[in-house]
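1st attempt posting a full record on here, be nice pls
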Amino acid sequence: MKNNLSMINYGVIKNMKRTLLQLVGRVLLAALFVFPMASIHADTTFVNVDLVPTGTLTGTVLLSGQSTHNGIIIYVSGTNIVGASDVSGNYTIVGVPYGTYTLTATKAGYLDEIIPGVTVTSAGQVVTVATKTLSPNADTETRMFGDALRQYSYNDYSGAIVSLRALITANPSGQYAAAAQYRVGLAFSQLNENDSAIAAMTDLITTYPSDSLVPDAYYWRGVYKDNKLDHSGALADFQFIIANYSSSPIASRAQYRLGRVYEALNDYTQAINAYHNVESNFPSSPDIAAAIYNVAWIYYTHDVYDSAIIEYNKLLTNYSTTDEAAKASYYKGMSYYNQENLTQAVTEFNSSITNYPAGSKIVDAWYYRTLCKYDLESYTYLDAKADFQSIITNFPSSDRVAHSRYYLGSCEYALGNTATAISLYQDFLASEPNNDWVPNAYYKIASAYYFGANDYTNALNAYTTYYNLYPDGKQAGEAHYWAGRCQERLGFDALAVDEYCIVITSYPNCSKVADAISRRDGLGVTTCP
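the predicted structure (as tokens):
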């Protein structure tokens, strides 16, 4: 039977080593005298008596903020033994001699994690090592933040939120953590998720109270509350900024937003005060022109035209190159128009057209200037006609074109060109069949036939068309009355009486009721059926 010394327990203690050497030496010496050399080589197993007991290390290492954790290297100090993590961050290191070690977990782009005091005490022992998480280093944080901002800039707001939150989770106290939290709020707002945006800004305020972005977080939280019609909450945030961060660049924006919120609450006195404070307390505010314009608009919409004109003048004098100035120039003209100071209105509309030819109100300025010319004796109907035609020619897609077409007919009618006027009204009906002034055009055609052309047959047909199409129209009673006049002129007195009686009985508030009674009575009929 062979002596298979390779089966010796490797757990033998060190002080047996000398005895084993002596024993093996004696066995080999005896074999030299008893057996041939070839036999010794065939039957002898050599033992490495330097072997020591080993164990296994197992554990988990993670990458902060990441969903996969493979590729982390774990070094066992004082040895050339290493391990590597799998996708879940798990690792197993076998063949670790007994003793106490320090492990180092490392991966490019992350800060090393040191795990001291890991001890193997017996052969075959499996030691479970405490879980560790590697935080990204400064270069990795910069890259992660840049990647998230790139997603944001490409309107991938959902992806940006995921990336930004991963950065925050990876290192909540890192150099980009507060900025990442701020961007999370902005991204949610772009997705119209105001509740989540408010929560994100609140997290920034509470988690990073000393960060320079806190005033901005209060501001945007106020804006998102305002979007949700939480006006009291918005006011609180804006007022907090003004009271506590008055030197912050965002304070002027908060002051302006106060005015907006007060307007939404219909508290116009407070709104005007808030806007005036933008002017007085934040003269460099980017919202100052808008603040002045909004004050003027409040006055304008409440028919306080003199005060509106003062504010519009202030804006035009000091901020003439702003978008608000272009609108102010137009509404200054409208203020005079509404005061029926048409001559001054023409002057202001001329200024608006000349100084702001690309302004959003350019077509309106043309249109109302032309209306002023139409009504002013200092201008001819030819002047007004030319302006209406210019609007049609130069601004063909404007919603002012339809009414300009209508007024072309009115200009021709006023000039005594009845046939041309009727033709232009008919063109208006053909080109603008759904316009709100279509009923007026039908009525104008009937009046042109009656008063301009003395064509009572066509006038009767036109008046009949009007009241059949619009029995509840504002001129339906008048149309019946003039239809009666047409019937009289055409010699149909009985039919005329029928029309007058319709006016009397069906349209008692019509301005022609008294005339209808008089005409009926004149035809020998004193009652209506």
